[in-house]
Amino acid sequence: MKHIRPAAVAGTFYPGDPAILKRDVDALLASVQPRHTEQAPNGQVRFPLPNPPPKGEVDAGSLRESYIKAIIVPHAGYIYSGPIAASAYARLTPFRAQYRRVVLLGPVHRVPVRGLALPGDVDSFATPLGTVPLDMPAMMQIADLPQVCHNAPAHAWEHSLEVHLPFLQEVLGDFTLVPLAVGDATPGEVAGVLEALWGGPETLIVISSDLSHYLPYETAEKIDRATANMILALTPPLSHEQACGGTPVNGLLLAAKARRLKPECLDLRNSGDTAGDRSRVVGYGAFAFYEGADMSTDPQGMTLLAMARAAISDALGKTASLSPNSLPEGKRDADSLREVQVIDSARWLDEPGACFVTLTIAGQLRGCIGSLEAHRSLRDDIKANAQAAAFNDPRFPPLDADELDRIRVEVSLLSPQQAMHFSSEADALDQLRPLEDGIVFEYGHHRSTFLPQVWEQLPEPTEFMAHLKAKAGLSPGFWAEGVKLSRYRVEKWKE
Known about the structure:
Elements: E1 4-5, H1 18-30, E2 36-39, E3 45-49, E4 67-73, H2 78-89, E5 101-107, E6 116-118, E7 124-127, E8 130-133, H3 136-142, E9 148-150, H4 152-156, H5 159-162, H6 165-172, E10 176-182, H7 187-197, E11 203-208, E12 213-215, H8 217-232, H9 246-259, E13 262-270, H10 271-274, E14 281-291, H11 299-315, H12 334-343, E15 355-361, E16 364-370, H13 378-391, E17 407-414, E18 418-419, H14 425-431, E19 438-443, E20 446-450, H15 461-471, E21 484-488, E22 490-494
Parallel strand pairs: 1-7, 4-11, 5-10, 5-11, 6-9
Antiparallel strand pairs: 2-3, 4-14, 6-10, 7-8, 12-14, 13-14, 15-16, 15-17, 17-22, 18-21, 19-20, 19-21
């Protein structure tokens, strides 16, 4: 017997008549015009202007092999936020045949929840346009995570998820749904669920959130612009005053940074621009996140490389300043250097972070030291690990001043670890993702890790695991019931 979560806000947040709803959604999608979000050289939003074609948002050349992996869209009544939401959904049209699963996260408004709530004994969600089947295997996959619970009341009247379904039904056609009502959770807990459900190009992540609430028009513009800048810079945390869906947004930003997604601002307006007065407005933004985009000249990565080199220079008594020599080729101009120097003072460097710093000379390893878990600010972690890789790697003598100009620096920023669940070594090997997974091996006091880059030298899972065990001080053929494995991902930059 099917258990359907019926439409709860049809007729209030959006039309309840199927024909009128379809007409309105199609009209909103058809009315989307290219909107220019003016951006400064550092990528920050100045303000969206109404008609000129897009410029300076995401370089078209960098997106040739990419696709939209995630979107942030508002969840007010269609008369207020529908045009802004449509600006994101219209971008999905070219991917209609690609997406087969939607992971939809929105904040709770009525029922308190600890963590992220699945809808309980339900196998589909209904709207006036029909029913959307839930992805039961995917929901079972995350049901045992400690931050995930079942809470049917949290979903019963929640509009933050439901209002997106008619758009998705019109744009994507057939798809399955993983709906999560997000309450009190950390960004890491949200990112962990997203990581478990990440999948490939068939999976689209939709984060539901409005921006500022009930501020005068000019004040809202200023605050929402700052919020958009933080989203584009992938720098959580956003407060709930900045975004009512700040909790799922923060989780997405953490995952997007770990996965090196490229963000784009599609629209940024408020209810004073659509259907309300300007004395007390609600802000709305639409953002797309591209997977597979070229991030080789990402200013944040350039900053981390420059900081690592500066830390080593400082320890050698050299000038500890950011140098064009530490920037990628093609980005060694004065503007790029100033951009990195500005970002060096950004607060995202003071958030907890875990990194590895790798040094090579003529392609040969010269030192590699890092942190597996965030236990200090990223700023301090970069500096400490850069100096440790240069002077305290027990495999090499300390770096001397004559080698400074010969080394090449690589920085790997680690995502939070995810425990793997397996029944045997063969099962564990089957779960490994070559070139994607960094792996931590643990057994008793034995511990070791390989960054994803090691797959380039050890491409076979069996060989990779054997060397990982040897690094932990165990025989390559060792296996025991108490073995623990965790995986993580990295975003990396190299001079």
